[in-house]
Write a structure and sequence with these properties.
With about 190 residues, this protein is mostly helical. It has 6 helices and 2 strands, in the order αααααββα. A hairpin with a 2-residue loop joins strand 1 and strand 2.
């Protein structure tokens, strides 16, 4: 299942990372770099929905695809956050919260799967809302200009802080769900 269309779309999110980061090193006008990175992020982030839709529609779901999909999402988001920190458009503290949560919850899910309790940390609507807010905030911050009267830097700033709050909230939620299983096995 490495080379199905849905899995190839998932791989594109990982392959996109050096292109999105690299555009900021090209000898282009800042507005051109911002626009190119924003468009790339939106296109590649859209593949998250598309690969899932196609996997179900074409009956090409797989355990590997289910593993790779969230990994690709996390790589793309974390890489863009690091680019935005470098560009001084995102506070390091916000990036640490979001990236740290992704590492912690990934490790928690792995451990819970090992002990046969993965359902207790299954994806929740709160995590989906957190992801949606991130996916809106990041292109706003990459674009970093006014569009249709909207100051994308200002909105992106508030949205990424909202994403950080939702990140902590969702982490606490998942930890609370896992705590009974953890207590039952740690003696």
């Amino acid at each position: 299942m490495f080379l199905t269309l849905p899995t190839l779309l998932t791989w594109t999110r990982i392959v996109a990372i050096p292109f999105i980061a690299g555009v900021f090193y090209l000898p282009l006008a800042p507005e051109t770099r911002n626009t190119a990175a924003t468009v790339m992020f939106i296109v590649f982030a859209w593949t998250d929905w598309l690969d899932g839709y196609l996997a179900r529609k074409l009956n090409q779901t797989s355990a590997f695809g289910a593993f790779l999909d969230p990994v690709a999402d996390k790589f793309l988001v974390c890489a863009c956050l690091l680019v935005l920190v470098h560009l001084q458009r995102v506070d390091v503290f916000v990036a640490l919260i979001i990236i740290g949560r992704e590492i912690a919850i990934s490790a928690l899910r792995e451990w819970m799967a090992k002990i046969g309790a993965s359902k207790s940390v299954a994806v929740h609507m709160l995590g989906k809302v957190k992801t949606a807010v991130q996916m809106v905030a990041i292109p706003f911050l990459l674009y970093d200009a006014r569009v249709l009267g909207i100051d994308t830097r200002l909105w992106g700033h508030w949205l990424i802080w909202l994403a950080a709050v939702l990140t902590v909230w969702s982490m606490v939620y998942y930890l609370q769900k896992a705590l009974p299983e953890i207590r039952a096995r740690v003696k």
